[in-house]
Each structure stands twice: as C-alpha cells, then as structure tokens.
Amino acid sequence: MGRVSRHDRIATGLIEWGSGSLRDLPWRRTNNAWHVLVSEVMLQQTSVARVLPKYENFIEEFPTPGHMARASLGDALTLWSGLGYPRRCRNLREAAIVIDRDFAGEMPRTLDELLSLPGIGQYTARAVMAFAHREDVAVVDVNVSRVLSRLEGEPLKARGLQELADQLVPEGLGWDWNQVMMDFGARHCTIRNPQCGACPVRKQCKWHGIGEDPAPQSAGASKPQAKFEGSDRQARGRAMRAVGDGITMQKGIV
C-alpha cells in the first residue's frame, strides 16, 4: 500500500465530515445548468438565507435562458428585488440573451464558452461545470479561500489558491468535494470563531488557530457583509428597478 499523502488525508477528512451533513439547498437537487447558473449569480455577495426565498420564484418565472431573454428587464429586476447588486440581474439577462441567440438556448459546457457569456468569470463558470456537469474542477469562493489559506498557514494569491484547489479535488468526486469545501468554510472554518478544536483535518492544518490568521490577506477573502436593509445598496437597487423598462418610481425613494 502506497504512502498516504497530506492532500489525501485532507480530502478524506473533509469528505467524511460532509458525508450526510451537507445543507439541503434547492440548487443542490438539480443538474440543470441554467438553474445552477441562476443560483450562483444570486449567491454572489449575498447570503443563502436571502437567496432561498427568491430562487424558486425566479426559476418558476424563468425556467430556461429563453424565458429570461424574452422577458423585460423591469420584470426581471422586480423578481430580483431584495437580493441587492441589481447589476448581476442585468448581466444574467444579457447572458440569457446570448445563450438563447448563440447557443440555441442550450447552456454552454466548456470553460471558454461559459467565460464568453456576459458577467461570467472563472468562479461562476467553474461552478456550472462542477455542479451541473459534474466535472472534476475546483471552485474557489471566499469560504474555500479561507479554508485553503488556513490549511497552508499562509496568505495565498489567486493563482496559488486555484492550483492548490485543483490538486485537492478527488477524482470522480468534484461535485461532492466542492460542496463540502463551501459548507465547511461557511459552517465550521468560519471567519470568526472557527471550530479548530473539532476540526477533522486539524493534524494537516498548518495554522491550528494559533497566531495571525492568514485568511484575511488571501485572495478572495471577504469581511462580513454589512446589513442590507436600509443600506445604499438597497436604495440603488430600488432606483435601478424604477428606471428599468419604465417602472414607476416607488414611494419612499428619494
């Protein structure tokens, strides 16, 4: 039997941690690439709790890229209301138009094709490949960035994070691995008060919760998001909905 590497032990420990304990989220019950794309765009800089009540209504109204492409921007922004960052909705609709026009309404499958869509970057393209097409590609979000930099005990730049993440993906388990990494960062290896004492990969971690946390200096790391209600972001969203396709200004908007 060959020597078990540190990376193998990390992969085994985290997969075991996630076995049977992943959060039950609606976008995890589908391999529809459009639905996965919608969820990933919604989740950018927005909490799961805020996305949950919006996602299924949005999918019901726009079950395919063609449905969104043919809808007005105003209708799309109305459904998006409450998620913040309405430019994401504009970009998603533009992507839907390109998919409907240039890909016969079928979601692209390759990284280059996905990256050709408006507003779609490396993270979102890889997420569609991993979660919809079940390919063994690594997805690095802020949670994954935090976990990886702590495991290595040093701040990591974007390229280093992606290379390390790619090395860790167990063959044939890309979907499971990426979901586990995101949940582990969101629920266990959290921004504040990480559960280092009960960490399944404590022996492989080079930080151990001792000394300066390398995560805040790593690429992709983020601080806790400011409250949305009453924020400038909420006001901007209302303003964009108001001007989108001639929507009437709502009361309370200055």
Which key features would you list for this structure?
disordered C terminus, 0% strand, 2 domains, Endonuclease Iii, domain 2, Endonuclease III, domain 1
Shape: elongated
Q: What would you report as the Rg, rounded to the nearest angstrom?
A: 20 Å
CATH class of the largest domain: Mainly Alpha
User: How would a textbook summarize the main sheet?
Assistant: none
Helix content: 40-55%
Sketch the topology as an H/E string, one letter per element.
HHHHHHHHHHHH
Q: State the helix count.
A: 12
- Under CATH, the homologous superfamily of the largest domain reads Hypothetical protein, domain 2
**What is the residue-averaged pLDDT?**
88
Number of β-strand runs: 0
Work out the count of structural domains.
2
What's the CATH topology label of the largest domain?
Endonuclease III, domain 1
Q: Structural class from helices and strands?
A: mainly alpha
How large is the share of residues in beta strands? Answer: under 5%
* Low-confidence spans: 221-228, 239-254
CATH architecture of the largest domain: Orthogonal Bundle
